[in-house]
């Protein structure tokens, strides 16, 4: 008979081990030890694979290897992942159907100032939208975005690239004089004649942070009309005050610059340039593109109505136009109704509000979702993601003890009573009340008389009544 100090020989899958009872009665078998080590290794691999910088760097290396025509990297990935090399190649080739907008990956993003990468991605995505909608005219058109208010630096598309080729890293950084401060990833410069037009407006109007030149055929056709853009549709009303300037194609003289600024004025953000198209501006990139969208739609509608004759058209009155404009400029999504209501599971008392959008913000975010779904990889940070991010909270038995489950019977009984399906005192429903629930306890109100007083009063108390369940 063994004692507590004696040793015992324990048979494990790995062989015979002699341990004392004080060291452990149930030592871990060798195969379990191997499984534990494998789990630890998988955890480390999973943490590395979940790293965003690692994934971006891996995609960059694979893309570079595939452009060079090397199949070594695909074979290595095939050995690691246990997949055929042809299948892995098809996965990575599918992402190359379009040039990604956000091509700033991994450590490269650390070389940009705070917020510059996001602005570059937004501006490059705007070029892609203009190209997808067919609103571009070759390589001459230009879009500028002010980098910050302190330094007069701007992001400009390289002169020589088509709009569908522009990426976040290819944008040039220039100063107010049009001198390139920092080249993008291309050898191209900028269109200095066009940038003069943009720089004059940026210098005179600090509130304008983005300017988009539109030379779309419909816009150019309307800019050549003597009547200009008429208030025929809601799109025209949403543009607000539309300025007009007789443009010669360049701003070489100071007098021409002064005339341009006088035509634009201190308020207008849309400028029709005679025979040359329009310049749509905004406090944000979203607002500038919002103006471009409504300008194109308004010009196309007017062109379709021109054969009828302006005398046969109904123009929007000035008061109505201002009302439409003011209503559209109010921050959308204020959520007055949602702010007054709280969700049932909101225990902290926080109000449920929808995000307040600036002009064109919600439309631009929807277009970013469209680009991401098409594989453009915009790099846009969504304010209001499409899919709800909150994971449903699991039911906790500690927060909801079993005794509370009997309240469900009372709530169900009250609902049946309100609907008239069940009436108290109905002998036909007695059997229904004796069914088993999660708990056989039922809370029942009982009126009792006070004790110890000469004038007893009735007091209502809640007692727990155990009802035998009907198991039939």
Automatic annotation (TrEMBL):
| Annotated spans, Disordered | 1-25, 329-355
Gene Ontology molecular function: any one? actin filament binding
Q: Which domain of life is it from?
A: Eukaryota
InterPro entries of this UniProt entry?
A: Aldolase-II_Adducin_sf, Aldolase_II/adducin_N, Aldolase_II/adducin_N_sf
Give residue spans, biased composition: Polar residues.
1-12
A single GO CC term for this protein reads: cytoskeleton
Domain (Class II aldolase/adducin N-terminal) ranges: 121-303
Q: What does the similarity note say?
A: Belongs to the aldolase class II family. Adducin subfamily.
Q: Indicate what this protein is called per its UniProt record.
A: Class II aldolase/adducin N-terminal domain-containing protein
């Amino acid at each position: 008979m063994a004692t507590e100090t004696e040793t015992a020989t324990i048979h494990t899958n790995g062989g015979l081990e002699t341990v004392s009872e004080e060291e452990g009665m149930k030592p871990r078998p060798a195969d379990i030890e191997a499984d534990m080590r494998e789990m630890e290794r998988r955890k480390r691999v999973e943490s590395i694979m979940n790293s965003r910088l690692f994934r971006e760097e891996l995609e960059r290396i694979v893309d570079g290897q595939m452009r060079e025509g090397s199949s070594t990297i695909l074979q290595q990935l095939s050995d690691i992942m246990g997949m055929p090399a042809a299948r892995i190649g098809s996965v990575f080739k599918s992402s190359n159907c379009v040039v990604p907008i956000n091509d700033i990956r991994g450590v490269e993003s650390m070389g940009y100032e705070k917020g510059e990468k996001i602005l570059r991605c937004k501006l490059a995505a705007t070029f892609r939208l203009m190209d997808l909608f067919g609103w571009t005219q070759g390589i001459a058109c230009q879009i500028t975005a002010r980098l910050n208010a302190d330094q007069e630096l701007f992001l400009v598309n390289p002169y020589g690239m088509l709009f569908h080729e522009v990426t976040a890293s290819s944008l040039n950084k220039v100063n107010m004089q049009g001198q390139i401060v920092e080249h993008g990833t291309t050898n191209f410069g900028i269109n200095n004649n066009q940038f003069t037009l943009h720089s004059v407006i940026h210098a005179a109007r600090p509130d304008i942070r983005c300017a988009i030149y539109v030379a779309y055929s419909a816009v150019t056709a309307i800019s050549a009309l003597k009547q200009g853009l008429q208030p025929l549709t809601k799109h025209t009303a949403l543009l607000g005050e539309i300025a007009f300037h007789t443009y010669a194609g360049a701003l070489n003289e100071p007098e021409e610059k002064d005339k341009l600024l006088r035509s634009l004025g201190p308020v207008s953000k849309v400028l029709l340039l005679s025979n040359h198209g329009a310049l749509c501006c905004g406090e944000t990139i979203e607002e500038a593109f919002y103006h471009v969208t409504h300008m194109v739609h308004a010009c196309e509608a007017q062109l379709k109505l021109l054969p009828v004759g302006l005398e046969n058209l109904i123009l929007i009155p000035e008061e109505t136009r201002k009302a439409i404009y003011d209503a559209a400029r109010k921050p959308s999504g204020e959520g007055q109704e949602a702010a007054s209501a709280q969700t049932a599971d909101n225990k902290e008392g926080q109000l449920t509000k929808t995000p307040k959008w600036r002009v064109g913000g919600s439309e631009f975010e929807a277009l970013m979702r469209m680009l991401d779904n098409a594989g453009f990889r915009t790099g846009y940070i969504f304010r209001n993601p499409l899919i709800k991010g909150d994971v449903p909270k699991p039911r906790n038995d500690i927060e909801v003890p079993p005794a509370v489950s009997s309240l469900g019977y009372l709530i169900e009984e009250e609902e049946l009573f309100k609907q008239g399906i069940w009436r108290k005192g109905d002998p036909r429903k007695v059997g229904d009340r004796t069914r088993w629930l999660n708990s056989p306890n039922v809370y029942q109100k009982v009126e009792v008389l006070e004790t110890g007083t000469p004038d007893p009063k009735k007091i209502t108390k809640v007692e727990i009544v155990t009802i035998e369940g009907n198991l039939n």
